[in-house]
TrEMBL record:
Keyword Transit peptide (UniProt): no
GO MF: zinc ion binding
Domain of life per record: Bacteria
Organism: Nostocoides australiense Ben110
Signal sequence, renumbered to the chain: 1-23
Protein name as annotated: SMP-30/Gluconolactonase/LRE-like region domain-containing protein
Single GO biological process annotation from the record: carbohydrate metabolic process
Keywords: Signal
């Protein structure tokens, strides 16, 4: 995704910013908050008296927003003649015609599949659909089964992880162990007992070959199975009874092997070679024939390589272009045919798909966030206006991001450091405007938090559990603390003494660790903590269990209070709070993973009780942009605007769009839009990323103020050309 330039600031504002930056760098001005979430000294506009337990919700920055489809899983259903597409970001599985027309989603008892939709498989006998489910905190078992119409039947618990799968012509389910193992299992599935029986386990290939990291799988008409092996850069092939046949590769395979597909009639074996970016193909004897596509951002190119791939009866080849929110279609000779959706349905620019890390620029007070599933960093003003945006799915800097989950601002230089959690490019430092890369330390992946203290960058590795202290000037690791307590979650550094306050990944405890790496205190929290921020003698911890922000005494280590209204999506409630930091204005900025937003808390009291309705207006002008419904307007209220929400009804189906779940439901639902600017006279925007051409939608808008008063409803009918 291209970077958007921030709006030009006035000459006076630029001069003031420069003078402030110089004063801070020289030590002549007020002390700013470190990226650890610590604040000392005083700032203009900061409330100096009282505990942070008096803080109340002031505003919300951002809102949930998802692409029309973040295509990862992909399979052709020969019974329904549909393409089934797994949406990795929205946790949905979507159905399309071969022409790319959206038909609907697989139906679930909840609003989503209960985890991340990975590889898909279809039983060619009856069109039944299998979905591999991954992701932390998922509620679904490893594999879900649906009938051909998309009705959920049951889910299955596999012996190991299930990221990839396929179904052969006899209806057998094949599951490579995925990214965490080195076996292939074959099951028969019994609908009557809703169970899977293991028929075969394969743990060996050819002589002298050890199975390594297994990914994509496909079966041919004879029942032979083909499985990609990332570690060996080959495709292994076995008979239906598990006898090894041959390996394909490693030449010319580059790496990061993903989907495998078979065209029996044409006699081809296809493989997504994601490092190269294209789809390679061989004949059925393993002789290399050529490649389709490559890396790039244009039509006919894959942003970060195709994920799962599929072949239709006309021999067309389809690839899930996860990084560009689309599926691409090619002729067997590699000629590009089309993409769908067309145009691509992108999330709202200021929206958030999966909120994780947050930091506040100590000079401007801008709020910088990283969106793990959006694969981007956003810079907002303290009033919620989107100023800048950078990043796209990729494994190489400068633009490439690989599930970014932490961000830190260097107080001395304003350089931004971003951690790609899942692997390359890893931790990368950028200039404040993302114009160039300033550093890239060579450290392991799984960095879940980044903080600055004393001119050094602290990188917390979630697993196996470590903190590495890095010199940002040369990207060298100066010291490392390896923990014996297990997985770690969040980190703040005490500006008074350099002690590290570290939360545990799944236990309700927080550790106080000296700079030398000695644990001097273990604090029991009300729930499992995540991000940590320090202000004066108070330590604030994001409590993912209760939805509150726990306040702990920095000197006595006692839990002394809490901020917020507990679990939920309401104003002042928090749903899985993650990163947090005090800004130079003294306010507390809190990222919420599940709510996909930032809630800003400020010193109380809350506005006085009143019953006056807020007023909301819709701007005149076009309501459809790039095939998507995009509405904008203003909302006013003396107590301040909390939300502007939309209810969107597809008049053809009677179903309502749920912006949090990114799907259409039978029940009426309200979805929050993006709000920014003056709280009493706010601007707003709502984007529907999943609309169809030649359809009409009934859209209703309402505003809610900080006291809970709701405006009169505004109704519009929007026709999408």
């Amino acid at each position: 995704m291209s970077r958007r330039s921030a709006p030009a600031r006035s000459v006076l504002a630029l001069l003031l910013t420069a003078l402030t930056a110089f004063a801070v760098a020289a030590g002549a001005g007020p002390a700013t908050g470190s990226a650890s979430g610590s604040v000392s000294g005083s700032f203009s506009g900061e409330a100096r008296a009282g505990s942070v337990t008096s803080y109340v919700a002031e505003r919300i920055i951002g809102a949930p927003s998802f692409p029309g489809v973040a295509a990862w899983g992909l399979a052709y259903n020969p019974v329904s003649d549909e393409l089934i597409v797994g949406d990795y970001v929205s946790r949905q599985v979507r159905r399309y015609t071969r022409g790319g027309i959206y038909l609907g989603d697989l139906r679930n008892a909840g609003k989503t599949i209960g985890g991340v939709a990975s590889a898909l498989g279809v039983d060619p006998r009856d069109g039944a659909i299998y979905v591999a489910v991954t992701g932390e905190g998922r509620s679904s078992l490893d594999v879900r089964k649906y009938d051909k119409e998309g009705n959920f039947l049951f889910d299955l618990d596999m012996p190991g992880a299930a990221t990839w799968l396929t179904v052969d012509h006899d209806g057998n389910l094949w599951v490579p162990e995925g990214f965490s193992g080195s076996v292939v299992r074959k099951f028969t599935v019994d609908d009557a007992t809703k169970s899977a029986q293991l028929q075969l386990l394969i743990d060996k290939a050819g002589p002298g070959t050890t199975l390594k990291v297994l990914t994509g799988a496909a079966a041919d008409a004879a029942g032979n199975i083909y499985v990609a092996d990332v570690g060996n850069k080959v495709i292994h092939s076995w008979t239906s009874t598990g006898e090894w046949r041959f390996d394909i590769g490693p030449d010319p395979i580059r790496g990061d092997l993903r989907g495998v597909a078979i065209d029996d009639e044409l006699g081809r074996i296809y493989l997504s070679d994601a490092v190269y970016g294209g789809i390679r193909y061989w004949d059925m004897d393993g002789n290399y024939q050529g490649v389709i596509s490559g890396l790039g951002l244009q039509d006919g190119e894959f942003t970060d390589g195709a994920r799962q791939i599929a072949v239709t009866p006309d021999h067309h080849v389809y690839g899930a272009d996860y990084g560009s929110f689309r599926v691409q279609e090619f002729l067997p000779d590699g000629t590009f045919v089309k993409v769908f959706p067309d145009p691509v349905m992108r999330p709202d620019p200021a929206g958030i798909s999966q909120a994780r890390g947050l930091n506040v620029d100590p000079v401007t007070g801008d709020v910088v966030t990283v969106d793990a599933f959006g694969q981007r960093a956003n810079r907002y003003s303290a009033q919620g206006e989107l100023l800048d945006q950078y990043g796209r799915r990729g494994s190489s800097p400068p633009e490439g991001m690989n599930y970014p989950k932490a961000v830190a601002v260097d107080p001395a230089t304003r350089d931004l450091w971003v951690s790609s959690f899942e692997g390359p490019p890893g931790v990368v430092g950028y200039t404040f405007d993302f114009s160039s890369v300033v550093g890239r330390p060579n450290i392991p992946r799984w960095v879940g938090d980044l903080e600055f203290f004393g001119g050094k960058l602290y990188a917390l590795e979630r697993r196996p559990g470590a903190v590495r202290v890095i010199d940002p000037k040369n990207s060298k690791v100066e010291r490392t603390w390896l923990t014996s307590v297990g997985l770690l979650h969040g980190l703040a550094v005490d500006p008074n003494n350099g002690n590290m306050w570290i939360t545990h990944d799944f236990k309700p405890v927080m550790y106080v660790v000296t700079p030398a790496g000695r644990i001097i205190r273990t604090i029991t929290l009300p729930g499992v903590g995540w991000g940590v921020a320090i202000k004066g003698d108070e330590v604030v911890v994001a409590d993912t269990t209760t939805g509150y922000l726990d306040v702990v005494s920095r000197t006595t280590y006692a839990v002394k209070g809490k901020i917020g209204k507990g679990n939920g999506f309401g104003f002042g409630q928090l749903k899985t709070p993650s990163g947090l930091q005090f800004g130079p204005d003294g306010k507390l900025y809190v990222m919420e993973q599940v709510s996909s937003r930032v809630t800003v808390f400020a010193p109380g009291p809350a506005p006085a009780a009143e019953t006056v309705r807020p007023v909301v207006k819709i701007d005149a002008g076009p309501m459809v942009t790039g095939g998507q419904i995009v509405l904008t307007g203003k909302a006013t209220d003396a107590s301040g605007i909390a939300f502007v929400e939309a209810r969107v009804k597809d008049l053809a189906t009677g179903r309502f769009y749920d912006g949090k779940a990114a799907t259409y439901l039978a029940t009426s639902t309200w979805s929050p839009g993006v709000v920014w600017g003056d709280l009493k006279a706010a601007s707003w925007r709502y984007t529907v990323p999943a609309t169809l051409p030649s359809r009409s939608y009934a859209v209703t808008i309402r505003a809610t103020d900080r006291r809970g008063n709701i405006s009169l409803l505004l109704n519009r009918t929007v026709a999408v050309p």
